[in-house]
Amino acid sequence: PSSFSPRLAPPAMPPAVRASEASSELAASPAPLSDAARMKGQGDPRYIHASRRKEMAARHPDLQDISGTEHRTGFFMAALVALQLAGALGAVYFKLPIVAWFPISYLLGAVVSHALYVLIHDCVHNLAHSSADLNRALIILGNSVHVFPSGILFRHYHLIHHREMNDNVQDPDVPAHWEANLVQNSAPMKAFWMAFYSIFQSARTVTCDYKSPLTKPADAAWIALNYVVNFGLLGVLTYATKSYVPALYLLVASMASVGFHPLGARWIQEHYPTLPFQATYSYYGPLNWLMFNVGFHNEHHDFPTVPWSRLPQVKDKAPEYYNSLFAHYSYTKLLADFIVNPQWDLMLRRTKKVEDLADSKPEQVSTDAAKKVL
Fold this sequence. Notes:
Blueprint: H1 24-28, H2 35-42, H3 48-59, H4 72-93, H5 98-124, H6 132-143, H7 151-163, H8 177-183, H9 187-195, H10 197-204, H11 217-241, H12 245-257, H13 266-271, E1 282-283, H14 297-302, H15 311-317, E2 327-328, H16 331-340, H17 365-370
Parallel strand pairs: 1-2
């Protein structure tokens, strides 16, 4: 199947740029190691990106120049929140029946909702402003139209994901054992899992072996504020319109944006292992211009201090580290393949020795992975 066949990323430079024009130092340097080779050398997937970052910073010192904040993030976030509210209120104002507003919410509202999740992600890394508190406030603003008050909690668990990436017990991005065992590689169950991904993701944090975000009073206060804002907004919308349609419109858009929707395939794209093995996978398709370059995920894990607007520059400045990597180009194709192809198994994400996937044949992946789960 296509998703399990290696495909290299397109060249970052046009063909007219000849190798002889590269710097002599870079040409003389050894080729970057593959993720599988780094795994075999270090034995822990958590250190793959740290290892790559150290090498890349030494070979391309100018990468440090693109780190920092992107102050336009807050303006884009406010505009998208206003747009989402306009859609929710418009469904009531124009008295749209459910057969009209539901597809609008699923097709268009989900795009807005997902874009807000991407900007929230940048705020989690304090890339919208130098003030951590202002970034938290922006997280709550962006999350206000997602119905579920998950923004500040996402901040807590996402930073753990970066520290404990692919650790079966501590990384909240890895499906819990009960979750992977329930879904496995069944097409109907994978479709159900994608449709309610946000609920599964929240449930697995209960089993995440890490300290609760409620242990610090300051974090607990921000979480409480997140709840007040989200439920307060729902109350205002319902009271002002005397209708539950705005809340339902926002709910459909929110769940679709991270669920059974082409954009929901992003959760498969980022870290689910295919062939060849990599700790992380990027997406270089056309939706990046709508989704604030969120597809540049390898680049993000290599340099998490680079904001969305400058992520493509990471690839441009260090093409030898990305041009040889497997990359996805279609979320729709990936989502369909994930659902119907039995080789996509949630147990793949829980493999203890994921570097072995690099030496496996595609048809062996699911069978071998099932033998290596915790």
